[in-house]
Every structure is written in C-alpha cells, then in structure tokens.
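tool=predict chain=A
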Amino acid sequence: MPVNLKALTIDSIFPIKGISLGIAKAHIKKPNRKDLLLVTIAEGSKVSGVFTQNAFCAAPVILCKEHLKNTSGIRALIVNTGCANAGTGEDGILKAKETCEAVSELLSIKPEQVLPFSTGVILESLPIDKIKNGLPDTIKNLDPSHWIDAAEAIMTTDIAPKAASRKIKIQDKEVVISGVSKGSGMIHPNMATMLSFIATDASINQILLDKLLKEVTRESFNCITVDGDTSTNDSFILIATGKAEHIEINQEDKRYEALKDAIRDVAIELAQAIVRDGEGATKFITIQVESGRDDTECRKVAFAIAHSPLIKTAFFASDPNLGRILAAIGYAGIDSLDITKVQLFLGDVLVAEKGGRASSYTEAQGQEVMKHPEISMRILLNRGHAKATIWTCDFSYDYVKINADYRT
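tool=predict ok
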C-alpha cells in the first residue's frame, strides 16, 4: 500500500473556473475501468508544458510540442492509459493526430488546439477505435468537479489516485490551483514526471507562465525518483485560465511569487505522492544534501544514493547497512571531495564523520530509525552553501513482481 498517502475526498480538490473534465471506460487494456480523460479549457487560457528528455519520446509528446507552438491557443487535453503509443514510429504519429482530429470534431475546435497524452505499455499500437468510441462518453460527463475521477482515469500501475489543491489571495481575489498526477514506476523525471496536469484560474502572461513552470518543475517533479528510469512519455502541463478576475501578472513581483509558491506546493505534494505510491514501496525516503559547492553536486550525491539498488533494498529490510550510503557518496562524481569533512545523519543520528563511523553511533540507533515508514537522511559535504532535497522509496519484492508481470 502507498506510504502514508492520504485518501482523496471530493471536497478537498477544488474546481477551476474555465476547466471541465470528463472520463470514460474505453476498455483500452482492461475492461470496466476508467481509462480515458478529456479536459476542456476555456478560450483565452494560457498553457505551458515540459516533457521527457528521452530520445525515444512517445508520439503524443512529439505532437504536443508542435501544438503548443500554434497561436490559436490550446482548448483541450485528451489522455489515455493502457497504451503509451511510444516506439510506434509513423503509425504512432498518425494515430495521435487522429485522436486530436476526433476530439476537435466533437468540440468544434481545431486539431492543433488539442494536446494528446498516452501512458502504458511501450512498443504497442494505439487502439484508436477504442479511443474514438469512448470520446462521446467523456463529453457527456464533462464537469468542473471531476478531478478525482480524472486522477483515477490516468492511472496505470498506481494503487491510488493523486490530486492536490490550494487556494490563495491575489489582489483580494480568490485564486485556485488544482492538479492531478500519475506515476508509480519508470520514475526518474527529466523536465517532467510521468503525467501531471495542474490548472489555476490565475491570470498570468505566457512568458512568465513558461518561466514559472520550469522553476516549479525543478523543485518538485525533478526531485523524485523511484527506479532511475526516465519514461518515454513524461509530461507536465500547466494551465492558467485567467478567470480569477485579478489584473494579469506580467512581471516578477509579490503576486508572481505567491502564485509560484502555491503551484510549487501542489506540484511537490503530487510529486511526493508518486514516490509514496512507488511500485512496491514500503518506505518514503527524504535525502538532504547540504553545504555543497553548488546545487548540481548536491543533486549528484542525492541521486547516487536514491538510485542505488543496494541502498534501496537495505531500507526495505530495515537494515542499517549504512556503509552503502558512503559508497554512493564516493562514486557520485564530486571533484576533490574531502571525505574527512563529510557527515552522514540518519534521522537525527550521526552515523559517519571524519572518514569513518561516528564514535557515538550504535547499530541499535540505526535499527530504530530504519523501522519507520518515513526515513530521512542528511549528508553534509561541508565545502560550500548549496543544498538539495530528493525524495525516493525502497525496493521491495513487490517491485520485481509488478514489473515482471506488467504486460500480463
């Protein structure tokens, strides 16, 4: 089960003015499950996106990048689960385009005003007929309040739906932010996460929205990893409908910072939910690297630890085999690292310093920290003032079972 992931309630995820969501059971991979999501977006809304850096990116990712360049504005998102439409060549592109055309006909908009998204098995042809047959049902149940249904409709190996909301004030006007994400395995984002969609009714110009998205991504979805695999389909979309009736944010000021902070809070909550629901996860692990020379080297150390199967399996077993952490710090690729200055804390317990085991550390202390479902560690490099935080999970028997049986 997910690690301390709160169950969603209908009143905890707020509708966004200018956004409606509809779902359908299109039977794409499994019968009688929500697997198709349509999101309609009010005319005049601003939309920004970041995507996977995987060279084998999926057909819908290619098409989304093209459509975001059009000047007529994005009016709809269409998301299917069960098939990634990745590694599908020209056939995949054609079927992604056909999906957009089908949506555009039903909504009376242009095909290039539709962004398509897919998630599921790679190297399989998109079942376009099932998607087209399911589209009318998504339109029938379009509703601003269907955020939790939307979160359920985009799940693959996820156990739980993931959604988050915030409300803030800008110029005495209430501004709402809501979002959903999916992801459980093949999670090591690079400019995005598996799939995430966040919307706000705030009014902000396009240049600042693009900047805000990149800043938020780096501090949220690019700070998580489950298994070190970057998906072919990673996409993070941010929508601003401008329906909150405040004056448009067109410069970096207090209004911009307030909006960014709230969107970042939603994004971090969603990103952490992905880790908490990591495939087979039993531990949620926070890795803080401090006093580095720059952010890059702090992240290198944190990800070296977070990606180590030896460390992740030890945490699953609640085994304080903490020398594995020192080994990961050592091979992280930090130039001229003075290991005698490095300090390692597990929770509040000092484990290592001066190049070896801390004299005050006992195995019993390590075992006490390791038995809890949420564990934190701090690594002090003691060579600068930069810091970074990464969130990950352990590797359990179930991770192997889930991925061994994924296609069956």
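The mean pLDDT is 95. The longest strand covers residues 173-182.
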